[in-house]
Queue: 4 jobs
Job 1
Amino acid sequence: MLKLDGNSKAQFAPLPPQAEAKRFIRLPEVRRLTGVGSSFIYEKMAEGEFPRSIKISPKLTVWRMDEVLCWMETRVRSQPSA
């Protein structure tokens, strides 16, 4: 949400938690969240085992954060308990 402060500078209010999970993220953030590298991400995408990227423009590729978080949760649940 866009707000203007007293100096007429545009500032964005924090997103609510539901909207935060539905935002687009770029490759560096996907790598940071998952802890895996670009090669792994693209390899697993090709195998159908990682969320597909979305081509927003010729130079901009993004992922949906909620899909990446779901993929991560699935990996955690598939691990045997200690």
Job 2
Amino acid sequence: MAKINWLDALNLKQAVENIRNEIPGDWYQDPWGWPELGFFLEKKPELIVDNLNALGVRALTLLDVPKENWGTRPAVILDIADRLTYHALTDCLSAKLIGSMSPDVYGWRLPPIDPSPGVYSHNNHQWDGYRGHLMLLSDLYPVALKTDLVSFFASIPVAMAQEAILDRCPHNDVTRRLCDMIAGFGAIPNRSGIMQRSTASAVIANMYLAPLDDVLKHHSKSIMRLSNGKVSHRSFARWMDDFWLFGYDAGNARQAQMDLQAAALSIGLNLNSAKTDVLEGSEVATQAKEIEHSAVDGALDGDTPDFGPLEALVDKIMGNPEKTNRTSIRFATQRMRKHGSQYRIQELIATACRMPHAADSWSRLFKEVFTNDSLQDWYLEYVSSNWATHEWAIAHLGRMFPSSVKPRKPLLEYFEQAIRDANTGLPLLAVAAQRMGEWDRDEARDAYREGYRRSATPHARRVLALAALKSGESRTTVKGWLSTDVENAPTLAMLESFGWNGPKVQADFAE
């Protein structure tokens, strides 16, 4: 047992707040928004203390998320107690890990002036700062090196990440437990490196890239200094593993590329040669502005909205749907929804099967544009086609159908079978279980029981238990299901503490 007083050493309240801020961007969307977090904080912090005093990590769930051009991103869904533990430990050490990071590095960081542990700059502001910095640099310099890393998070060697943490932090219980958890994550079969979509992991990843930041600083030029003299900006910008370095000479840019590759190799990483370019002349500003999409917002926000730039972006998406990045598609669909544009909408829904990596964005747009009946026909045709290669996309597109509108029998049967099927992954199971409980409680309860008998993970049993409770399943049955796994002990304790009043489904998930 550790002698440290964990509740004094860590700020659990802050860690819970930070996790809640990152939950909307999770690869897996929990129907109930992980209510255990509030329960830990308000009722049972000792459950987290027990986890801090333990070793290793609890059972988790593997998840395959589609990437551009039919790539697959290996992801994991953490046990909720592990997630809070991991975040609280990293928050505590964050100032030592990334407190001195260059102001020209954006995203998942502490403010460059007077950083405080665990108090991160909001990523919306970071993204605005990143785009603005790129625009400034593209106006000042005629040459730019643009590159990124191959499978960055998955390629980080766990042992080297631990060493980097130990180099920066005191060797105490906090550091030891964090390194122990990282070792546990690194030992997960069929997964390597550190997990994605986690602020805690992003902090560690930003820390790990310090050698590459040193190369960027060496090859960059000073461009401005704020009046307080505390923040000096240079002619580079980094957003996690996306790098931009600006200058005057293409040969110097290529030399910097070689130095970046050497620095990457020294820490077990590789530059992505397929995505590395040295841009010159007008191409510098052109490619920098592709990230910003400033022309779209500027045209739409005028007194008389001009849809031309937005439509040009849609045309570009349609010209190469498989390879268009998620960020551009999300940007386009958000503006289409906000401004009521239906430009090429029939072609977009016909082509959406080619963009499984953006299924969450298409789902939100399509349910606002098309009738529920027509979407049911389209969805069932899609899930039975060869295009339905990633269950993550099937799950997000399944959210086109709101809880409040009972669908026709074929869609009911599809979701019911998904609950009963032992091979159904957690994202689709969560959508199907929550929707079926609203659409047909009797059939849902029977499906939940079979689903439980076939279930293979604590996460799946938690979803089935919470959905079944809402559908009128007995407390005895639900308690038995949750008692199977130590990972679900917090969920069981939460229900008992609140008189078996099940948590509410998040409005955004149900709609």
Job 3
Amino acid sequence: MSQYKDLSALRKLPRSPALSYLRKQMRPRKRRPTRIAPVLETGLPEPVRADIGAFTPAHLWNFISHYLKHRLGRRHPFPTYKTRRVTNGVYQMHADGEIRIALAGDWATGTVEAAKIADLIERFKPHYAIHLGDVYYVGDPVEVAENFLGIPSPSGHYIPCRWPRGSLGSFALNGNHEMYSLGTAYFSKMLPALGPIVNGRARGQAASFFCLENAHWRIIALDTAYNSIGLPLLEYFWPPDGALPAELMDWLREVVKPARDDPRGIVLLSHHQYFSRFERWYTRPAKQLTEFFSRPVLWFWGHEHRLAIYRAFGIDDGITAYGRCIGHGGMPVELPHAARYEQCVTDFVDERSYPNAEGLQIGFNGFARLSLQQERLAAEYVDVLGTVIYSEAWTVENGTLKRLINEPGLVERAEVTQ
């Protein structure tokens, strides 16, 4: 019987192309029954107990051949709306009534927790479902198929996971792990299966950036991952800064045309964090965006495997943002969260220990669900058990964001939208 993948096989996965390829070769080859009784009542098959062995010479050829095949060479060409010409990348949302949007980062792991998150998103019945990036381990064609598109791998050992479909569209941002295989599977396999829904079918996501907008809000998705890798080996000495590609900047100038007096609220989406209390900062995109935004924005990102809600913060030559780290969609959430940068003040960080069938000392997985109703935006942060653990609400007045609700703690059980 096929099973879902193990969280233990993904714990402490390095953010490094070579080491990610190495861990891929060390993953469990056989399914083993768990020795610990499962705690979750998910209705899904229990996960497999995974014990990662040492890297041995037996793995060496697979590691080298896979690395040479998928990591070396040129990056996939960067698609733009000028080259595709099927759309300009700006999609209109209706201005009246509720718009539901599901966001999850670092989800594509194929674990039972990822499957449960997908189920909760589907029960939310979003109009749009957006993944903030990262298909593990290295975003190659087999992993994209099995961990994101719901297509079984040739080995057939594991149950595939499919990213949920929004009734009006599903999208996926680019992540650094997708770029570890040069973005080939992300651009050529994932994006054609996504995009706006037209006549009941996905039209295809033409590029790794886009904008959803109406009379009250603009939700702008950015690609911070395309420039998150460099030349093999040299990238360890000169780490890439995740700069927004020039083509994306041209699209912002020529198509989106953000105006400083725009009365709409701005929500940004990216894979990498602008700032962090815990890990490395990627400030280059925030500096580039000062060309367009002078007011604080609401910014959702992944990359770090945790849930963290930040107060407004910005560097001197970057924009100001209310950061929301939601990279806890499917990867193990390592505990405790040790602070490194005290200047980044958080309103909430989920520090709870997650009872799991593998007996790991980890935190809870989860996702965010947004509800837009005219000038009001409500955000609820839901864990893998379906519990809303943090909620907030915003309104926009002449382009300025104002917070209405800020409630930490276990608020309620997640309700299913009918």
Job 4
Amino acid sequence: MNAYLADILSQPQALRLALQKTDLSTLTSLRAQLANGCFDRIVLTGMGASFYGMYPIWLRLAQSSQPPIWVDAAELIHHTPALIGERTLLWVVSQSGRSAEIIHLLQLLEERPPAGLIILTNEPDSPLGQYAQSMPNKVLLPLYAEPEMTPSTRTYMNTLAIGQLAAVGLDLTAKVSLSDCLADLQRSADGIERYLQDWQVVIRSIESTFDHAARTIPPSPPKIILLGRGPSLASALVGALCLQEAAKIPALAFQSGQFRHGPLEIASPDLTVWVFAGSQEAPIYRLNRKLWQDLRQMNLNAWLLQSSANEKGCLSLPDFSGIGLPLVEIVPVQLLCYSICKQMGIEPGDFRHIGKVTEKE
């Protein structure tokens, strides 16, 4: 079996393992310090899928009395290092813990040590993990995913899961409990597993979204835009990254509202748009659905990704609950990447110009 497909199919098991092993009691001290006003800001940083995966974390913390700052590591080290001060709680996510910007960030931290540190990484023995171990006021949260040689799958999903749980644990105004959120993620793992049991059938359903051009994905690279709001914006951003990295196509991602402010002008009959509907209980569902309907009325090949494909132009997601939404949304995009590669004669998940870890700035 292709390594990228194997990584995709192994995600439910990897997620369950991470949920079983993660110990969030280590956040108790930092939460108390937040409550006592010991930090004047929370800075969230990372690169690539790690950075995009922090968006649901940012959303959660932004509802609290201590709004966070979400800035990628390249901008942080080169343009906004002053965001890291003697009362900063710095939260870094890096799957490898050794990419170029992370190494540069560690050099910066020698000059500007934060007051507190949270690290999410899949390699606790990496330079980032070792730095965290030397910090007196830190929390190191491993991702507990098996090593990957292809674009991020298990590590990204576990980042979403552990990161959101940690955000709930830190949120002084949280209206949901950690136990409820843990149950949401476990139910979502079950939903993903059921969805992937018939992955060949799912791929045929996904390929049908390109029936405007051919009965299968065409031999020329398809044009794809992914749209999302709220937690689903992470799915759009990482989904486009997956399509660029794994399937080698110039996919785009936009916040759904932003798409109406100019980018809509690039719409054409050969463009496919996937709109992440979001939770059907959330107010933004109506906005996402209206956008999808407007695109369909413009004769665009627009698809709404939601819990059930009960009408024309809808593509079903794995079953999910609560904070499991962004975890399930990425799975159809991963399978789309695999399918496009097979259609284009590309080995799914192989790198051409980069490696698994980005070592140059």
